[in-house]
Fold this sequence. Notes:
With 107 residues, this protein is an alpha+beta fold. Helices cover 35% and strands 30% of the residues. The longest helix has 16 residues, at 18-33.
Amino acid sequence: MTTTRIIVLLNLKPGKNKGDYEAWAKNTDLATVNTLGSVEKFTVFAATGLLGSNARPPYDYIEILDVVDMDAFGRDVATPVMQRVAAEFQDWAEPVFILTRNIEDAA
């Protein structure tokens, strides 16, 4: 089975504090999602700049989820614990979820 990488680009909602979000992400989001059997690895990155530019990055954060089984992931995110985490996440951020495939993998 091929791993699906989900890339999440997000900006915090107006009035949300980056320090508070990062504490929540570390203590709740990362801690919970990384325990899911369907997820190989979940990482959150803070955007710090654009290479060769002084412009502000278009997104505050980038999340990378490596999902080993999308069907199991669907079941995992439907649990009450993950529904609570997802609701909290939606309160923090305005995300864009991008599903990807590695072009080096067989089609």
